[in-house]
Amino acid sequence: MPHSIAADARHETGHIFAPSGHATDQELIEILASHDGMRIERIVSHGQCSPDGFWYDQDEDEWVLLLSGAAAIAFACDESLQELKPGDYLLIPAGKRHRVAWTSPQEATVWLAIFSSQPLIATKQAEK
């Protein structure tokens, strides 16, 4: 069976909740893995949000999972607000303007975000 990783390649380990040691007045973005047209990021927020009037308008699809804390994503198309708690995930298609409305200032909000230049297809509708 063919695979893309050499048998002697080093494996990488880490802990998604490991303390980052960064100042909590800034959001932390770490790229955990990447490949052509895809990257996986760990994002740690401490009350940060998008600046007033700023909207992300990305060329990539983004799948985001909230691991801890709390947050809300606002969408420009209909001014809706999607609140997220630990375990909630969201698929944001490329070109869908959005912003981080708020993140919890009381605790670290940890996100796992996957960005892809190829369209991501939701394959299962999870129950809320």
UniProtKB/TrEMBL annotation:
Q: Where is the Cupin type-2 domain?
A: 57-115
Annotated coiled-coil positions are: none
Q: Name one Pfam family in it.
A: Cupin_2
Superkingdom of the organism of origin: Bacteria
What is the protein name for this chain? Cupin domain-containing protein
